[in-house]
Amino acid sequence: LDQAVADRQPVVLDLARVDLAFDRLTLMRELPGAMTGGQIFLQYQPKVHVRRREIASAEALVRWQHPTRGLILPGDFISVAEQAGEIAALTLWTLRQVIWDQKRLAVEGHDLTLFINISGLLLADIAFVDAACEIVGDGAARIGFEITETAVIRDPDSAIRHLQRFADIGVTLAIDDYGAGLSSLAYLKKLPARELKIDKMFVMQLTSSNRDPLIVRSTIDLAHALEMEVVAEGVETPSALALLTVMGCDMVQGFLISRPLGFDGFRRFLDENSLFDGALGNPTFARP
Ligand code: C2E
Ligand code: MG
Ligand code: MG
Ligand code: MG
């Protein structure tokens, strides 16, 4: 500003940016209260095993039901939580909730693994890793963590050590958004992950693009060579599902199968589709 005044330049305020910064500050201030006040909740999105024709697991996605702004999606508040130093608390809350939900579903006959997303920052946070291990405890609930590779690249040795601790207590690890960020084959080999999730940017135009099918097929082959199972996220059309099936993709997740559902809706989905064959109200899907 001083320089602009000295140069006698007009000062132009970018109001959109000011609004955004103000918004983030407000959300940052409101987040702790939202967590204790019951405004944060989870939706579940199933992952379906293509060959076994069953619901293999589900991913918990966090949402913020804001009293005046309505529903806020994680894209608009996870980075706020990270910046506010609240991401560990938010993730531990999520972990406790999915363990609770997993046990409730198991009692009802749906004993499937529930995954949560773990921010990369947290893999460097010893206090978080210790707390998460303690909450997971004896591994009585089937739990999985989705992490992006970018998380590992910052401090690979300690991240891999922490991931190994999670794996040792029975947590299933999945590499999320594969291909979307910096993908390193060197780390891929070292990670104790059982699943590789291909980012939806390669899946959403699978049948209309020339290159995406090549990328997806070689990623599936690579993951299989490393003895990992492959999940395609963002499966929206029967034709994408058919192609993924031919390519040997193990699991699919996306709006074609189900949008993320609240706990009760998800439970209903499980009840209605416990025998996946011919189910899901979508004949094309049932017979790819
Ligand atoms: P992600 O883990 O890659 O989750 C997939 C995102 O794709 C979700 O968006 C999901 O609703 C959306 N999606 C699923 N199927 C389809 C589809 O067929 N088509 C399209 N177009 N989109 C689909 P959402 O819920 O907005 O989550 C965005 C990201 O926020 C997640 O990406 C994840 O990285 C992050 N996130 C969500 N929950 C948490 C959390 O509890 N902790 C942390 N650290 N991050 C979270
Ligand atoms: Mg995820
Ligand atoms: Mg993902
Ligand atoms: Mg993604």
Automatic annotation (TrEMBL):
Domain of life, per lineage: Bacteria
Species in which this protein is naturally found: Sphingomonas rustica
Protein name, as recorded: EAL domain-containing protein
Transmembrane annotation, as ranges: none
Domain EAL per the UniProt entry, residue ranges: 24-274
